[in-house]
């Protein structure tokens, strides 16, 4: 990789913090992408987000079992340890992962406790497109009124997410990364509803 380990990763980290504090806001991390220089079977923006967040103090899990080389690379680059879904601090999901597997993982992942809600997981999710439109509406802290967001997630997956976040402040944070190097975040404190049609 030819990215600047300090400047570029701090740039991405700041963008992630900005998006997390303003749920549904779409930010671009395209600037450091031009310096990415490696061969790996992964969305570059997703990997860059993981590099900015992971370190030797955290664990991660990759939902797909078809990318063992990516586990090795993330461990090599970040010193983070691979862990089972129930223990992982970060969970990485690819756009071609089966919906049933994602749903099952949502039931198993860490959501913290009422005493320690911060002991929850953060999901980094690859998607084909991010847009501020569609039938998913976000409300809550950091959103003035409401925000529409299209992520490629089905209503079934949003329902599964809502099931795990209904006991405030427990839940998990979500970072969506698309193929245009855009990111958007849905924290565990954000209310997600389906827009009524008609």
Structural category is alpha/beta
Under the CATH scheme, which class? Alpha Beta
Determine the CATH topology. Rossmann fold
Overall form: globular
What's the story with the biggest beta sheet?
7 strands, mixed
Major sheet: arrangement of strands: 1-9-8-5-4-2-3
CATH architecture assignment: 3-Layer(aba) Sandwich
Order of helices and strands: HEHEHEEHEEEHEEE
Strand content: 15-25%
> Helix segment count?
5
Average pLDDT number = 89
In CATH terms, the superfamily is Bacterial phosphonate metabolism protein PhnH
Measured distance between first and last alpha carbons: 50 Å
Number of strands: 10
Q: Helical amount among residues, as a percent range?
A: 25-40%
Structure characteristics:
Rossmann fold, seven-stranded mixed beta sheet, three-stranded antiparallel beta sheet, alpha/beta, 198 residues, 5 helices, globular
Account of the 3D structure:
With 198 residues, the protein is of the alpha/beta class. The chain has one domain (7-194): 3-Layer(aba) Sandwich (Rossmann fold). Helix content is 29%, strand content 19%. It contains five helices and ten strands. The chain has helices at 7-21, 44-53, 68-78, 99-108, 155-165; strands at residues 27-28, 59-62, 81-82, 90-93, 122-126, 136-139, 147-148, 173-177, 182-186, 191-194. A seven-stranded mixed β-sheet has the order 1-9-8-5-4-2-3. Strands 7-6-10 form a three-stranded antiparallel β-sheet. α4 links the parallel β4 (90-93) and β5. α1 (7-21) packs across α2 and α4 packs parallel to α5 (155-165). The longest helix has 15 residues, at 7-21. It is globular. The N and C termini lie far apart (50 Å). The model has no long low-confidence stretch (mean pLDDT 89).
């Amino acid at each position: 990789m030819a990215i600047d380990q300090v400047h570029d990763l701090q740039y991405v980290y700041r963008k992630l913090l900005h998006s997390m504090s303003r749920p549904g806001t779409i930010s671009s991390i395209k600037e450091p992408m031009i310096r990415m220089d490696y061969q790996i079977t992964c969305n570059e923006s997703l990997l860059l987000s993981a590099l900015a967040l992971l370190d030797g103090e955290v664990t991660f899990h990759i939902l797909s079992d078809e990318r063992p080389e990516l586990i090795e690379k993330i461990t090599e680059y970040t010193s983070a340890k691979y862990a089972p879904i129930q223990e992982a601090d970060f969970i990485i999901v690819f756009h071609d992962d089966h919906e049933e597997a994602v749903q099952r993982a949502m039931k198993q992942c860490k959501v913290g406790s009422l005493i320690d809600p911060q002991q929850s997981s953060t999901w980094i999710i690859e998607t084909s497109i991010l847009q501020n439109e569609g039938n998913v509406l976000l409300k809550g802290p950091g959103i003035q009124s409401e925000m529409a967001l299209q992520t490629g997630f089905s209503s079934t997956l949003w329902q599964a997410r809502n099931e795990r976040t209904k006991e405030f402040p427990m839940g998990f944070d979500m970072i969506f990364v698309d193929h245009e190097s855009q990111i958007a975040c849905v924290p565990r404190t954000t209310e997600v509803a389906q827009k009524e049609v008609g």
